[in-house]
Each structure stands twice: as structure tokens, then as C-alpha cells.
């Protein structure tokens, strides 16, 4: 009788492998729903497209759609880039000033987004700026991003995320980001978004010289 093989310590545990596979499948389903939604919006307009049509095109049930996106607006507004940005901020050296760390994190995080995803972001931004219901949700999303960045700055600086210093810094970051995003949309993505954001954050880091 042969002795049992020793487990390979470098191999992932079975439960981790199952979880990873499940997460990949969920990410694929989420991406498919969003891609089909954007395709339908481009073909027949946002208002004329129903959740049932999106679900049918993505080959999922409406109930599955709602597990991934609570509303039709969310299929345009929601993305996975906030966690990517947060990870990039946390990866910056601890001795960097908060604004310098944010600038480096934006450059790193947005530089990782492949071109096909960048094109989708551009499409979503155009929709968000042209559909009234989406403009309202975009404001809500910006407020959530402000809170997220405030938490990251507070963690790095040891300050209260609600303090005027932290909120002012984060507000300034968002204030210079919005014109950069608007310029990117107006130029139909012909200018590099990471370059636009880096240039804008560079002006802020330099004290906004004019």
C-alpha cells in the first residue's frame, strides 16, 4: 500500500480555490450584465431600455440582475475602481504626504485599467452626464468617494476623517478631478485619462500656480 502523498504547501486550500472560482464567475456575470446594458443603451436609449431586456441579453433572470445591481441606474454608476484606488493609496510609502500619496495612487490605479475598460468608463461617463436620473446618482457616488478618500487620508495622517483639514484636502482633490474628467469626456477619450488626472493633481500639489 502506497503512502499518502504529502500535501503541496504551495497549493491553495480547496475552499479558497472554490471561493476564487465563485468570485471569478460573479465578476464575469457582473461584467456581462453591464456590457449588455451599455450596448442596449447605445442602441435604443437609456429610458427605452428595460431591466428585463438587459437581463435577457445577458442571459440571466431579472432577479439575478437585481442581485448585482439594485437599480437600472446602478448598472451605469457602479464599478470596482474605488477598491482598486484604496489599495493603491495603502500601498504608498508611509512617509509620503497624503496628497502626494493620492496622486501616486491615482497614477498607479488608473494606469492598470485596460483600454477596453477605459472605453466603457467613457461610455458610462457620457451617460451619467446626459441622463438626469444618472446625474443625481453620480452626485451620490461622488459623496461616497469623498468619504472613502477622507478615510484613507485620515488613516495615513492620524486625523479624524471628519476634521476640516481632511475634508478640505479631499474636497480639493475632487474639485480638480471633475474638470479633468469633463475634459476627458469632451475630448471623447482622445487624451489619456491618467495623464489628465496626474496633471490636475500636480497643479494642486504645487499649490495651484497660475
From TrEMBL:
Is Transcription found in the keyword set? Answer: yes
Quote the DNA-binding region ranges, renumbered to this chain: 50-69
PROSITE patterns found in the cross-reference section: HTH_TETR_2
Keyword Calcium listed: no
> Which keywords appear in this protein's UniProt record, sorted alphabetically?
DNA-binding, Transcription, Transcription regulation
The protein depicted here goes by the name: TetR family transcriptional regulator
Write down the species. Answer: Microbispora corallina
- Going by the entry's taxonomy, the superkingdom of the source organism is recorded as Bacteria
Where in the numbering of this chain does the HTH tetR-type domain appear?
27-87
Q: Which InterPro entries match?
A: Homeodomain-like_sf, HTH-type_TetR-like_transc_reg, HTH_TetR, MftR_C
Amino acid at each position: 500500500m502506497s503512502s499518502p502523498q504529502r500535501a503541496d504547501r504551495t497549493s491553495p486550500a480547496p475552499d479558497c480555490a472554490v471561493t476564487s472560482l465563485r468570485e471569478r464567475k460573479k465578476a464575469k456575470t457582473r461584467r456581462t450584465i453591464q456590457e449588455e446594458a451599455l450596448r442596449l443603451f447605445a442602441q435604443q436609449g437609456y429610458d427605452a431600455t428595460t431591466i428585463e431586456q438587459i437581463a435577457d441579453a445577458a442571459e440571466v433572470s431579472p432577479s439575478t440582475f437585481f442581485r448585482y445591481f439594485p437599480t437600472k441606474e446602478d448598472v451605469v454608476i457602479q464599478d470596482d475602481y474605488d477598491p482598486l484606488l484604496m489599495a493603491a493609496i495603502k500601498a504608498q510609502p508611509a512617509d509620503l504626504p497624503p496628497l502626494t500619496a493620492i496622486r501616486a495612487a491615482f497614477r498607479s490605479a488608473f494606469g492598470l485599467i485596460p483600454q477596453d475598460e477605459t472605453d466603457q468608463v467613457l461610455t458610462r461617463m457620457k451617460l451619467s452626464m446626459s441622463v438626469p436620473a444618472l446625474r443625481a446618482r453620480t452626485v451620490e457616488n461622488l459623496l461616497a468617494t469623498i468619504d472613502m478618500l477622507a478615510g484613507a487620508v485620515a488613516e495615513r495622517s492620524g486625523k479624524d476623517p471628519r476634521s476640516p483639514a481632511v475634508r478640505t484636502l479631499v474636497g480639493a482633490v475632487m474639485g480638480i478631478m471633475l474638470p479633468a474628467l469633463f475634459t476627458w469626456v469632451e475630448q471623447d477619450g482622445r487624451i489619456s485619462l491618467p495623464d489628465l488626472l496626474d496633471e490636475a493633481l500636480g497643479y494642486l500639489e504645487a499649490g495651484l500656480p497660475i
